[in-house]
Structure formats: structure tokens, C-alpha cells
Amino acid sequence: MAAINTTPPRFRGVEPGAGRPGSDDLGRQQERRRGAFLLTALGLALAASLVLAVGIGAVRIAPATVAGVVGHVVLGVPGTPPGTGSEVAIVWQVRVPRVLLAALVGAGLAVTGATLQAMVRNVLADPYLLGVTSGASTGAAAAILFGVGAAFGDNALAGSAFVGAMGASLVVFLVARAAGRVTSVRLLLAGVAVGYALYAATSFLIFAADSAEGARSVMFWLLGSLSLARWSSPLAVVAVVVLGTVALLLVWSQRLDALAIGDETALTLGVSPTRLRAQLLVVVSLCVGAVVAAAGGIGFVGLVIPHVARRHVGAAHHRVLPVSALTGAIFLVWADVVARTVLQPRELPIGIITALVGAPFLLLLVRRFHAASA
Q: Among the residues of 296-349, which ranges form H helices?
């Protein structure tokens, strides 16, 4: 069965100005300048967002106080940190880990979404596609409701979710390669099938549990929560995995460009589509598994953010990936601010906020495809 290519022209690895003699060098220089400016602007926006987000909450803390506390602890600025003792504790022990986890989760979901869209050549792909999120949810539900994963100790929830995510990825890969070569269509169909099966398993666990409180906890976690953020695990694990994933994918950016064009083109460029998809599947599963284990199921970030990045920097992944990472980090930091402040003192699952933003975007994307095909 031939894959239907729904990829828009900007996503096919064609650089602006290509094929026009005399314009290539100038076009590349302009692209580099625009890319450098955008990355600098996004970096500054992320730094400002981190400081402002830490100060927002039930107890409002001035940005100067936040910066002073962080500078005192991290940089060893001499003297007494600004603010009261309770403000210092709130900033450093509660909010800074949470805001940093939000940034890391947003970056991880965004870059894995961009990678999956190149892997399966489908602009509607996101980390939910391969059933990784569903596997993590099943593992977390088993840990919360039935105590599975007790060997992980205090990290039973995160550990069980991670094992579930990796197990789902393994099943998807084995099913996709059962007929031989791993193709984008097989990955897509296997991911959807495994995801639905694991969603059914999670629902069964919820209904089979005797604890109503446990069922509510699972439902809240399934929609995403950053309440597990601590200076130790899972923040440290997520930081290592996400930063390592971004770095590795940047090294592979040209291979991703070739894969996004098509398998035949990738082969002519010396890239094995089957081997690269297997490698990317392992990397993406590791990253998504760590992220979902720490923050639950957060949808639409991996779908929306890569499209925003491509709209501003084109299709080349050496620009798409860093822009996606920074944009995803900023987006999720502010989504978390809304989730924990809009109904104070109660906290909304962050997945509700991302869905409220992502669903209208998906409708606009469908309308765009309809207009383009008309």
C-alpha cells in the first residue's frame, strides 16, 4: 500500500532560493541571520518566562526577588538572599523545579513531534502516534491503583510509566518490522493499534480498581501534571534525557531532511530508511517515556509546535529542532502557569490547557489542507 503524502511543500527539504543561480549564497546568509536572530530572541524570551513564571502563584513574588534567590543559590552571590525565608523556600524548593520541568517537558515533546513527523512523513504525527504515551499511562495506572513497581521505591510511578512506555515502543517496532522493512505506514498503523489497545487496558485498570481516590489520581495524571517536580528525580533524569535527545537529533538533522523527502531519495543519499527509523524510534521512545513518566500525558505540544517552527524557519531540521525546543519550552511554561492559577487554589491538569490551544490549531490545519487540495 503506497503512503499518501500529505506533506506541505515547505516540509520537503527544499530550501528557499534553491535552483536560482546567484541567489543561493545570499539566500543562505539571510536564512542564517534570520535563524540566529530568532534563536536569540527565543532564548531571551525563555529566560524571561522562567523568571516571571516562578514569581506567579498563590504567593506573588517579584521578579527581582526571584532573580536574587536564584543568583544567591546558583552563583553563590554573597550576603542574605532577598525576600523572607518562606519566599526563598517557595522559589527554590517548589517553583524553580516545577518551571524547569515544564520547560524540559515542552522542549522534549516538541522535538520528538518534529522527528516523528519526519519519520512517518505525516504532518499530523505527534508523540501519541507510536503508543508511547498510552504505554506510560498504563504503567502509571498499574502503579497508582495496584502498587505495581514497588521495586522503584519512591519513584514507583515514574519508573512504572517509563517501563510501560518502552514496552509499548518495543511492541510497535516488532509489529512494524514483522513484514520485513520498517516503513512509515507500518509504524503509523502499528502505533495507532498499540495505542488503542493500551488505552483500553488503562481504562480496564481504572474500572477494576476499588479505590475511587486512586481512580481520580490516575485520571488527573493522564491529563498531565507537573506536581512531581523535585530537584532529584524526575527532574534530573528528564534534563539528561531531553538535552541528550536534542543534541543527538541535531547531529542527525541532515538524515532527517533526507527521510522527510522520501525513502528513495534517502537511499540515494546513503541513508538507510529502515535503520534510521529504528534508531529514531529508540531515541524518541526514550525521550517521550522519560517525559511522560515525569509529567503524565500532555497532548498537542508535539503536534502544534513543529508547525509553528517550520512556518518561521523553513523545513531544514538543523533550524526546526532548536526553534521547536525553545518554543515548546516557552509554551509549556506558560501553560503550566495558567493551569495552576486560573482556578486557585485548585490546579487544572495541564493537558486541558494544551488541548484548548492545540484543538483549534488542528482544525485550522485541516482547513488549510482542504483549501490546498481544492
A: 301-313, 317-341
Q: Are 328 and 87 in contact (CB under 8 A)?
A: no
Give the pLDDT band (50/70/90) at residue 373: low
Residue range 7-30, pLDDT digits in tens:
444 444 444 444 444 556 777 777
- Write the CATH number for 331: 1.10.3470.10
Number of domains the chain contains? 1
Is the pTM here over 0.85, yes or no? yes
Closest CA to 295 of 357, 207, 354, 360: 354
**Cell numbers representing residue 327 in the block:** 518554543
Which residue range forms the structural domain that includes residue 31?
Answer: 26-373
Q: Does some domain include residue 117?
A: yes
Q: Tell me if 181 is assigned to some domain.
A: yes
Could you read off the pLDDT of 163-177 as tens digits, one per residue? 888 899 889 888 888
Residue bearing the bigger pLDDT, 133 or 44? 44
CB 103 within 8 A of CB 332: yes
